[in-house]
Design goal:
Elements: H1 16-32, H2 36-43, H3 48-61, H4 65-76, H5 78-95, H6 102-130, H7 136-164, H8 167-188, H9 205-210, H10 216-234, H11 236-243, H12 249-272, H13 278-299, H14 305-336, H15 343-371, H16 373-397, H17 399-402, E1 407-411, E2 422-427, E3 430-436, E4 446-448, E5 467-469
Antiparallel strand pairs: 1-2, 1-4, 2-3, 3-5
Length: 471
C-alpha cells in the first residue's frame, strides 16, 4: 500500500489499534524500567557493578541499530520493521527469565535496547504517514499523552508487584512485559504499511542525508531537547532528596506532577497553540526549561523546608511546561523536514541524537551534580539557551519550522494543467489536493486549516483567485 503525503487518509478513529499498541507498549516499558536493576539483583547472583556493566554495554552496542534500519524503513515501510522490533523485545524479556551470567544479560538487554531504538526510529515515520498534514502536532501530542499514562500505569503495577518482593513477583513483571510486546505486534497487523511512492527519488542514501545542512541543526536541536528530558530521571530526584535534603516523597511528587501534566494537558495545549509559528513555540519551550532550572537552583538558597519543597514543585511545573510545549512540535518538525523517500533515514539520524543523549546524560549530569548545584543547573540553562538558538536557526532555514501549528504546507508539485502549485488542504477530515492558481512554484506557502474555505488561509486572497481539486 502506497500513500504519499497528498493522498486521502482515514480519520484518527481508524487507527485505534495503533494507539492501543502504543499504550500497551508504554505500559510494558513502565512496568520494567523502574525495577530493571532490582530484578537482576533479586533473581541472579551477580553484583550491582556486573549488572550495571552488562546493561551499559548493551545500550552502547545498540546505538548503531537505529540508523542501520533507516534504509529498511525507506524500502519496506515502517510497519514490518516495527513488528520486528516488537518480537525482538518480547524475545529479550523472555530471555530475562533464564539469564544468570553477565554475558546473558548483555545479550538479552541488547535485544531490548535495539528493539527500543528501532521502535523510536519508526514511530515518527508511522505517525507522519497516518496523520494528515496540519494534524501531526495533535497526533504527536495525543500519543505523547497516552504513552505517559501508559508509563504511569506500568509504574503503578510495578509498585504493587515489588511490594510482595518475591521471585515470582519479579518474574511476573517480566512475563507481563514480554506479553505486552506480543500484543503490540498483533495490534500492529491492522496498521497499514505506508511507504513512499515507488517513483520517488532515493538516490544518495545516507550521503544525501548527511549532506543536508538544513537538517543537521534539527538533529542538534533534538539533542538539546533530549538532554533536558533526561534531567527528570537523572538529576531532579537526586538533587531534591540528597542535595537539598527534602523528604523522599518530593521526588515521587515531581514524577507524579510531570505524569499528570503531560498525560492530561499535552493534547489540549497543542490545540491552544494552533496558528503559532513552530520555531517560536520551540523557543518558548526552552525558556520554560531554563526557568525551571533556575527555580531548582533557587531552592538551594531557601532555608525553610516547606518553602524549598514549594520552589522545587514550581520548578517542576515550569520544566514540564517546556516538555508539553516542545515535545510534539519537535517531533513534527523533524518528521516534516525529511523528504518522503528518505524519511526513515532522516528520522533514524534524529533518533540517534536521543540515543546519544541517553548514553551521555547519566555520567555528565551525575558529574555536574557532584560538583555543586550551580554547576548542573547553570549548565542545563546553557543547554536550553543553545536549544533556543538552534530553534531560531531552523526557523529561518527549515520550511517545516516556519509554518504555524496546525498549518499545511504547499508543495511545489505540478497538480494539473494550468496549475503551478498543488497544495494539501484538510477538508472533511481528509487530505484533498487543491490546486491554487497564482501560486509560485518552488516557494512553500503555509495554508492553515480553516473551517470556511481556502481564501482565509491566504493573504487577502492575493495568491489565489480560485481553487479546484487537482485531477
Amino acid at each position: 500500500m502506497t500513500l504519499p503525503d497528498c493522498t486521502v487518509r482515514p480519520p484518527m478513529a481508524r487507527h485505534r489499534r495503533f494507539v492501543a499498541a502504543i499504550v500497551i507498549d508504554s505500559i510494558g516499558t513502565g512496568v520494567f524500567v523502574p525495577v530493571s536493576m532490582l530484578y537482576f539483583l533479586a533473581t541472579t547472583s551477580l553484583t550491582l557493578v556486573q549488572v550495571g556493566a552488562a546493561l551499559t554495554a548493551a545500550g552502547l552496542l545498540a546505538l548503531p541499530v537505529g540508523p542501520l534500519v533507516g534504509g529498511l524503513v525507506d524500502r519496506y515501510g515502517a510497519k514490518p520493521v516495527l513488528q520486528a522490533a516488537n518480537l525482538a523485545q518480547a524475545l529479550g524479556f523472555a530471555g530475562y527469565l533464564v539469564v544468570g551470567q553477565t554475558w546473558q544479560i548483555a545479550v538479552c538487554a541488547w535485544l531490548n535496547s535495539a528493539g527500543r531504538a528501532v521502535f523510536s526510529s519508526c514511530y515518527g515515520v508511522t505517525v507522519t504517514a497516518l496523520a494528515a498534514p496540519g494534524r501531526r502536532e495533535r497526533w504527536f501530542g495525543l500519543l505523547g499523552s497516552v504513552r505517559n499514562i501508559g508509563y504511569a500505569l506500568g509504574g503503578l503495577l510495578t509498585a504493587v508487584a515489588v511490594g510482595f518482593g518475591t521471585h515470582g513477583a519479579y518474574a511476573a513483571i517480566v512475563v507481563v512485559n514480554a506479553l505486552s510486546y506480543l500484543t503490540a505486534f498483533v495490534l500492529m497487523r491492522a496498521v497499514p504499511d505506508i511507504r513512499p511512492e515507488g517513483g520517488q527519488d532515493t538516490a544518495g542514501g545516507w550521503g544525501r542525508v548527511l549532506r543536508d545542512l538544513r537538517y543537521l541543526p534539527v538533529v542538534a536541536h533534538q539533542l538539546c531537547f533530549a538532554i533536558s528530558l533526561f534531567a527528570l530521571n537523572i538529576a531532579i530526584p537526586v538533587y531534591a532528596v540528597d542535595v537539598l535534603g527534602l523528604p523522599g516523597w518530593t521526588a515521587g511528587a515531581v514524577f507524579t506532577l510531570n505524569t499528570l501534566m503531560v498525560g492530561s494537558a499535552q493534547g489540549t495545549v497543542v490545540g491552544w497553540l494552533s496558528g503559532r509559528v513552530r520555531s517560536r513555540v520551540l523557543v518558548a519551550g526552552h525558556a520554560c526549561f531554563a526557568a525551571g532550572y533556575l527555580l531548582f537552583l533557587a531552592a538551594d538558597r531557601v532555608a525553610a523546608l516547606a518553602l524549598a519543597v514549594g520552589v522545587v514543585l514550581l520548578g517542576a511545573i515550569s520544566y514540564t511546561s517546556g516538555e508539553i510545549v516542545g515535545g510534539p512540535i519537535t517531533s513534527a518538525v523533524a518528521a516534516e523536514s525529511a523528504p518522503d523517500a528518505l524519511r526513515g533515514r532522516y528520522l533514524a539520524l534524529n533518533q540517534l541524537a536521543v540515543s546519544v543523549a541517553g548514553a551521555v546524560a547519566p555520567a555528565a549530569l551525575s558529574g555536574l551534580l557532584s560538583t555543586g548545584a550551580a554547576a548542573i543547573w547553570l549548565a542545563l540553562v546553557g543547554v536550553s539557551v543553545l536549544g533556543a538558538a538552534l530553534a531560531t536557526t531552523i526557523g529561518k532555514v527549515v520550511p517545516a519550522a516556519q509554518s504555524p501549528i496546525g498549518g499545511v504546507q504547499c508543495c511545489d508539485r505540478i497538480g494539473s494543467p494550468g496549475c503551478r502549485c498543488c497544495c494539501c488542504e484538510v477538508l472533511d477530515g481528509a487530505d484533498v489536493p487543491v490546486c491554487l492558481s497564482g501560486s509560485r512554484p518552488g516557494r512553500p506557502r503555509v495554508l492553515p486549516r480553516r473551517r470556511r474555505g481556502l481564501r482565509r488561509g491566504l493573504a487577502a486572497g492575493r495568491m489565489c483567485r480560485g481553487s479546484r481539486r487537482c485531477g
